[in-house]
Amino acid sequence: MDESLLKRIRVVLVGTTHPGNIGSTARAMKVMGLSRLVLVEPRTFPSGEATALASNADDVLAAATVVNTFTDAIAGCALVLGCSGRPRALPMPTLDARAAAARALAEAGRHEVAVVFGREKTGLHDVEIRACHYLVSIPTSATYDSLNLAQAVQVICYEIRQAMLGDLPGEVAPADWTPEPPERLELFFQRLEQALLEIQFLNPAQPKRLMQRLRRLYLRARPDENELNILNGIVSATLETARGERKPKG
Question: Is 118 left (phi over 0), alpha (psi -120 to 50) or beta?
């Protein structure tokens, strides 16, 4: 398989505290053929410690992109995989490391992919989790499940490499399907919430759980441009009707 596919997979580290983990991540990526590293508000970077632990992956560090927000880090990615081991009150669609790697590689031929890792102590925050299409779990021992950040990156990068050397999943997406990136979906979610408030379907005092479920529904569906335009049209019609601005047809 063409290794250029790996250039469409970015590894995103969010709020990394220890610069050594950034360097070790760069090394883990390069040895498996990945090169695109995005850092969201790292505490210390650049850093001599990061460079030392990167070994000969200095080029990955030099090319790393530093951004201020999680939204910037995943911009343009039609598939966002969030690595998290914490149980959630509202369960999200979850893949194991091998299935996630195969999906990332399969979709990299068509659009940008982000594999996201959270903070060393607290992982990904709920607002970041809600922007992911799938969570990714790494099966570990039930008696000791603590993985170092760079170790987790190494496992995922290894599985991506293995997927590249083997057969991809048999599922074939429609030829005209390219899912919309998270920034467009976020605008839709904002408009949808406003529409549901205006028609009094959503309780303004407790909107969160319903909106979380709707986010999960639409992220699972992963609408393309035409589908999202239809959904936005429905929201627009709902808002116009609620405000008395929509004239009856006929």
Answer: beta
Largest CA distance in the chain: 72
pTM greater than 0.85: no
H-type helices in the chain, by residue range? Answer: 19-31, 48-54, 58-62, 70-74, 97-108, 126-129, 149-165, 182-198, 208-221, 225-242
As a whole number of angstroms, the distance between CA 164 and CA 145 comes to 27
Reduced to 3 states, what is the DSSP secondary structure of residue 163? helix
Reading the chain (250 residues) residue by residue, the pLDDT tens digits are: 678 899 999 999 999 999 999 999 999 999 999 999 999 999 999 999 999 999 999 999 999 999 999 999 999 999 999 998 776 666 788 999 999 999 999 999 899 999 999 999 999 999 999 999 999 999 888 898 888 999 999 999 999 999 998 855 555 567 678 899 999 999 999 999 999 999 999 887 776 788 988 998 999 899 999 999 999 999 999 999 988 887 776 5
Residues forming beta bridges with residue 136, ordered by sequence position: 83, 95
- What burial letters (b/e) apply to 85-95, b meaning 16+ CB within 10 Å? eeeeeeebeeb
Burial class, 120, CB count within 10 angstroms (exposed 0-12 / middle 13-18 / buried 19+): middle
Q: Are 114 and 146 in contact (CB under 8 A)?
A: no
Decide if 85 contacts 137 (C-beta within 8 A). yes
Tokens of 232: 């936005």
Cβ burial of 41 (10 Å; 0-12, 13-18, 19+) is middle
